[in-house]
Amino acid sequence: MTDAQNWQPPGGDPEAGRGTPRYGEYAAPTPPPAPVPGAPGAWAPPPKPGLIPLRPLGFGTLLWAPFQVLRRNPKATFGSALLVQGAVMLSTLVVVGVVTFVVLGRLANAPDDQRDTLEAGSIAAIILSALVPIALSIIGAALLQGIIVVEVARSTLGEKLTLRGLWRSARGRLWTLVLWTLLLTLALVVAVAVAAGVVAVLVVLGGAWQVVAIVVGVLAVIGLLVLGAWLFTRLSLVPSLIVLERLGIGPAARRSWSLTIGYFWRTLGVQFLVAVIVNVISQIVTTPLSLLFGFAVSLVDPNAALDSYLPSIILYVLILFVALIMGAIAAVVQSATTALIYIDLRMRKEGLDLELARFVESASFRTGAETTVPNPYLT
Predict the structure, then answer these.
(1) Nearest to 74 by CA among 138, 139, 166
(2) Mean pLDDT, contiguous 10-residue spans, the chain (379 residues)
(3) Domain coordinates of the chain in residue numbers?
(4) pTM
(5) N or C: which end of the chain has fewer CB within 10 A?
(6) What whole-number distance in Å separates Cα of residue 121 and Cα of residue 20?
(7) Distance between CA 79 and CA 72 in Å, rounded?
(8) Among the listed residues 121, 136, 130, the one whose alpha carbon sits nearest the alpha carbon of residue 98
């Protein structure tokens, strides 16, 4: 045995040198020290103060986060949707119902020689009365979209506002948003009217022009669908820009067009998939209820002893109630989807996640005092 193998540490204790490499051996590599949280160079996950993590969002996050908006603050979001949807539905029942009742009463008491004239006027009156709830539904959808945009923006920062707080925060921009929605509706009506007018003229010409009218009608429908999807996707961020960045209609439209460049299919795909998911859930809920109610009515009244209109009224009220609930859920989820896409695109293109993190981490924000960090959503 060599001297190197018989070597002992000073003091004669053979155990004192245990762990020290012997002659001809190599020491085991020393593992690097564990990173200290918060130290420079230490990895840390992106902060998530509220609804979403402060980083560019994945496709899956964009699909489930809109439903989290409904779950995180149901009183403010679902409550606002119920108020708006309920007001629109009530106005529809009152306006259209009263006009229809009056018109049918006049027709029942009209003499035979005036019945044709009264029927034409009655149809026109019912159609005009239906325009009132349509206009109210457009206004209500715009108001609700502005409310949900504020909720998504605040919940991303970790805030949770009440129903009154949401409306107070958004009220300064709601009428601009209503004007934008009315302009979009007017543009759609004009486009459909022009296409329908061209087809009607070709049909009136008769002969071979009727075949041309069919071809033009099919191409017009396809063209309007494609053009509508393209414009809707490019301008879908306008409500978020109007509310959060306080832009006018023109600047908001141009900025929405700019933000969606390079992300058209992603934006369209997310909105389309969320709409499909909401519609499928709605059908899953409403279809069994309708079938179950019809089966229950046949069991309760198998011989139709009750008045014939009573089951129909009950079924109509039930369908209205379910439609109100599902309509409120769909409105919240789809509006939240658009707001989340806006935040995601600004994170990807403008580094909004850094501004949001700086705002959240400010001491004044945490303590509730007036913050010196500017509003991160304003450009």
Answers:
(1) 166
(2) 50 49 49 50 60 88 90 89 88 80 72 68 75 83 91 90 88 90 91 91 84 90 93 93 93 95 94 92 81 66 56 72 86 93 94 88 56 74
(3) 55-199+263-362
(4) 0.78
(5) N
(6) 105
(7) 13
(8) 130
